[in-house]
Amino acid sequence: MSKIRNKIYCLLSISLVFYSVTSFAQDLASENHWDKNLEGKIIRNIYVRTLNVAESFDEKENITDSSWFKNLTNSLHYKTRDWIIKERLIFNTGDKLNFRDVYESERLLRSTNLFVEVKINILSVTSSVEQVDVEIITKDRWTITLLSKYNPNNKSGNLGLKDNNFIGLGHSSDVILSYNNDPAIGWGGRFRYTAPNIKGSYIDAGLRLEANKKFTVKSINVSRPFITYKTEWIGGVELRGERNTIDILDTNDALISRSLSKSMMDLWIGKSFPISINNELFINNSNLLTSIRVFSRNHSERPLPPAELRIFENSTMLLLGAGIISRNFYRDKFVKDFGVTEDIPYGTLISFASGLEKRELSNRWYFGFEGIYSNWFDDFGYFSGRIGFGIFKGKDSWEQNTFNLNFLYHTYLYRWKIWTYRLFFNYDLLIGYNRLSGEKIHLNSSTGLRGINEILLEGTKRMVINSEARIFSPYQFLGFILGGIALVDLGFIDDVNRNIFSSRFYQAYGAGFRIKNESIINAAFELVFVFNPYNPQNKGAAFSVLLSTNFEIGIRDIGYSKPFIEPF
How do residues 114-155 score in pLDDT, each as one tens digit? Predict the structure, then answer.
C-alpha cells in the first residue's frame, strides 16, 4: 500500500513540475461588449444573419470562398432557418433590453452545437433614444456525418448517416444499417429522430426504433428541461419497450438462451420558483425547484422468476424531489474545443429525492441526495466537486445503497513557445453497499482506465484517478487543427467488504494526437497509444491503440430535471 501511495505522489509531483515551468496564457472572455447605457431600452427590431459553412465570420459582410469545393459545400448544406434561431431567444420585440437575457440567448444558441460562432450585437436607433435593434450573427457547422464501424475479428459492423440540422430545422436524425456475423443477431438497423424546442416552447420530442434478430427497442419521449433561469414549468414523459435474449446458466452450468421483454413508463413534472439568496454558495437569481416522478417497469417475459433474481421484479415508483440551483456561466476557449467560445457553468446545486417503490416481493423507501459546487478561481483554475448517495430501506434491511464522490479540475491555459496546453484531473470514487445479486461495476476504458476494453474487472467499489495534458498547436490543415494529449490513468476495484487498496493497482500511460475541425459537427478524432503494465486480457503488460471521438475529462453540467436514483 505504501508503494502505491509513493507512485501516486510521484505522478502528482511530475504534473506539478510540468505545471510550474510554463508561462501563463489564460485568455478568458472579457466583459460583454454591449454598451451599458442601452440596457433597459425597448427592443424595436431583431435581425438575423446566418452565414453558410464556407462563409467567413465577418460582422460587416458575408465573405465566401469562391473555390469549387467550398461552393459545393454551401450548395449541399441547408442553412439554419432564421425563425429557428429566433425561437431560441428568451427576449422578443417590445421587451426591455436585459443583458442577462441577451447572454442567455447567445449561450442557448451555442448549446445547440449547430454553429461555429454566435454573436449578438446591440445597435442604437438614431431616430429614437428609447429604442434599440438587436442583430444576431451565426455561422453554421457542417452537420451531416457518415457513421461506420467494422470489426474484422467477427466480421461485423454498421453503416449509416446522421444529420444534426435536418433541412435547416435544427432537428437531429440518424439511420444505421448493421450486420453481425453471429446468426442469432444477423442484420439489423436503427432510426432516431429528435425535434428540439418545438414552436419555441423548449419542449423536445424524440423517437427511437432499433432492432435485429436478438434485440428490439422502441421508445418515444417528450420533455421540457430546466435550461434557463426563466424556465418555470419542467417535465417529461417517456414510453419504452425492449425485447432481448440473454444467456444464463442452468442447473448443470450450461448456457441457455432465455427471452426478456419489458415495458417502461416514465412521467415527471416540476415547477421552478425564483428566490433571492446571496452567500458564499448561492447568489442572486437562484431557483427553488420541486418535482414529482412516477416510473414503472413491467416484464412480459423473464429469464428467471424474481424470487431467484430480483432485478427482474416488476415495480412502480413514486419519487418527490426538491432542490436549489444557482447557476451562471463564464466564457472560455480551448477547454473541450479548439478555439471557439465555450460556456462553462459554475454555481451550486443541492437536491433531495425521496419516495416509495412498490415491488412484487416487497415494498421499500428511497432517499437520495446530490450536491454540486463548481467555480472558477483566479489563482487556481476551474474546480468542480460532486457528492451523491442513494439508499433503499426495505422492510427488514437496507439495500442497493450507493455513494459517489467526484472531483474535476483544470488549469489555466498555459503557453510554452508556440504551443498552448491545459492540465486536467479527475477523481471518482463509487461504492455500492448491499447490492442485489449480480449487480457489479467494472473498470475498463469506458469507466476511466484506458486500454482495458473487456469487462473482466468487476466489483462493488471502484476508485479512478485520471490526469491529462491537452496540447493545442498553431498548425492546421483544411480547417483541421492538430493537438496532442498525454495521459495517466490509475484505478482500483474490489468488493466492499475489503480495503480498496488491497486491489491490484491498475495503470495506463499514454500519448497521442487530437484532431478537430470546428466547422464540422462531429469532426473530432483522438488517436492514443496506451501502455498498461498489467492487462487482465493477457495477464501481463500490453500496448494498445485507441481511436475515439470523445475527449475524456470535461466539465460538469449544473442542471435539474427529474428526481432520480443515484446510479451505480
Answer: 999 999 999 999 999 999 999 999 999 999 988 888 888 778
Q: Under 8 Å CB-to-CB from 341, ≥6 apart: which residues?
A: 29, 110, 117, 118, 331, 332, 333
Cell representation of residue 534: 498489467
Check the CA dihedral 50-140-89-130 and report its sign: negative
Amino acid at 55: E
The pLDDT tens digits for 512-567 are: 999 888 888 776 788 999 999 999 988 899 999 988 766 568 899 998 889 999 99
List the domain boundaries for the chain.
36-140, 215-548
8 Å CB contact between 118 and 31: no
CATH number for 215-548: choose from 3.40.190, 3.30.1380, 2.40.160, 3.40.630.
2.40.160
Give the list of residues 6+ apart from residue 320 with CB closer than 8 angstroms, or none.
290, 291, 292, 293, 353, 354, 355, 563
Q: Position of cell 448456457?
A: 255
DSSP reduced 3-state for 276: coil
User: Cα separation of 116 and 433, whole Å?
Assistant: 46
Is-contact 434 398, C-beta < 8 A? yes
CA distance 50 to 56: 11
Q: Which amino acid is at 467?
A: S
State the pTM of this model. Answer: 0.85
- Tell me the fold of 36-140: Ubiquitin-like (UB roll) (3.10.20)
Question: How far apart, in whole angstroms, are the C-alpha atoms of residue 382 and residue 374?
Answer: 8
Half-sphere exposure of 421 (CA within 13 A, CB side): 23
The rounded distance, in Å, linking the Cα atoms of 488 and 9 is 13
Cell numbers at 222, concatenated: 417528450
